[in-house]
Amino acid sequence: MVRRGVSTLLLLCIGCHALLPPSATVSRRIHSTSRIMSQLHSEFKEDSFEDALAYETSEAILSSQDLNLVPRGGDAFKYIVSPQYIANSIQLGFSQRLAADPNFLSKSILEVILAATTQYMAELSRRGWDRIIPEIDFVFAGILTAVIGKYYSAWRVAKTIDTSENIQVNKNKENQKSNWREKVPTNAFQRTLLDGHARPSLTSRFLAFLVPMPQLFRAGMIASTVGYGLTSALISLRTTFLPSYVAQTSPVSVPLAALYTGVFMAFVSNIRYQLLQGVVEPYLIDVPFDQVAKLGENNGLLGSIARWRIWQSMKALIIITVRYGNGVLGSWIAIGGMKWLGLQRLST
């Protein structure tokens, strides 16, 4: 009971932090990352960043940005495997998400904590208290896979805006190479494209559901392989050093589990996080509380009421509740699918 209360208090603190305005440090980080992007653009002007990483590396775990950063051909690999290049590309993707949502960092921390918490609660709900220890192999693998998969899903379909000078519309159309991916937003419901000005067409919004599917599928394959592969390795070590121990769970087929998780993320997680970050949070949560904040700029009784701190606490609680519900729903569906397909079975 005490641990549950501490966990709830921690989640409330993180949610309240998500309501604070972006600090000067965050603003400096956006401008610093924009300069990095400018340098990379000046060096690599050929094909798109997402195309190069999509076909030449496991880019899905990193950033999946539609940017002109990496050259085609054999020279691309030496840049892709560079730790500095990977760090710059992650920082660049983070700055674009931070520009679209100043609270993205706080929501990211909240998402990781909720991913582990909701997966554990879903495991508990589906298996029961008396089956947690006997099926701990499945529980551990499920939690590890959920943390990786859920956060990447949230990252991949988060709204993005580029604040650098390189994304501004080029007036000289003859010297500008057309790339259809630049017309597809990272979230189907965001108001503008990456440039922060152009409005996505209906076709572009539809493609926003399809474009991230390959990256989400690969990320799901990797997340499940890491989760269930590590669990299988631990079981092997335990069997080697403790021959008398008999596991109550049957070994999971790692390839089939990875395939299932990849398909699950490409469809179920894709749709859930598109709606969460594109409709529920910006329109159903942010808009009403932004209106309250505007009322707080006025004098009088109404303005005084609108300035009460209780409104920020209410917004934090709503964000935590909605994201918690989204996490529980995803975990419940994922566990049910695994058991229905026979991927998680007890030993006979």
Which labels suit this protein?
348 residues
Summarize the structure.
The protein has helices at 2-17, 24-43, 49-56, 75-80, 83-100, 104-127, 129-132, 136-156, 202-210, 213-241, 254-295, 301-306, 310-340.
Protein architecture, described:
By secondary structure, the chain is mainly α. 67% of the residues lie in helices and 0% in strands. The protein has 13 helices and no strands. α6 packs antiparallel against α8, α6 (104-127) packs across α13 and α8 (136-156) runs antiparallel to α10 (213-241). Residues 1-34, 36-78 and 168-177 have low confidence and may be disordered.
CA distance, first residue to last residue: 35 Å
- Beta content comes to under 5%
What about the largest sheet? none
Uncertain ranges? 1-34, 36-78, 168-177
Task: Specify the overall morphology.
Answer: globular
Q: Please report the number of helical segments.
A: 13
Structural class, from helix and strand content? mainly alpha
Number of E-state strands: 0
Chain-averaged pLDDT: 75
What's the Cα radius of gyration?
22 Å
Considering DSSP H and I runs of 4 or more, what fraction of the residues is helical? 55-70%
Task: Please state the oligomeric state of the protein chains shown.
Answer: single chain
The sequence of SSEs as H and E is HHHHHHHHHHHHH
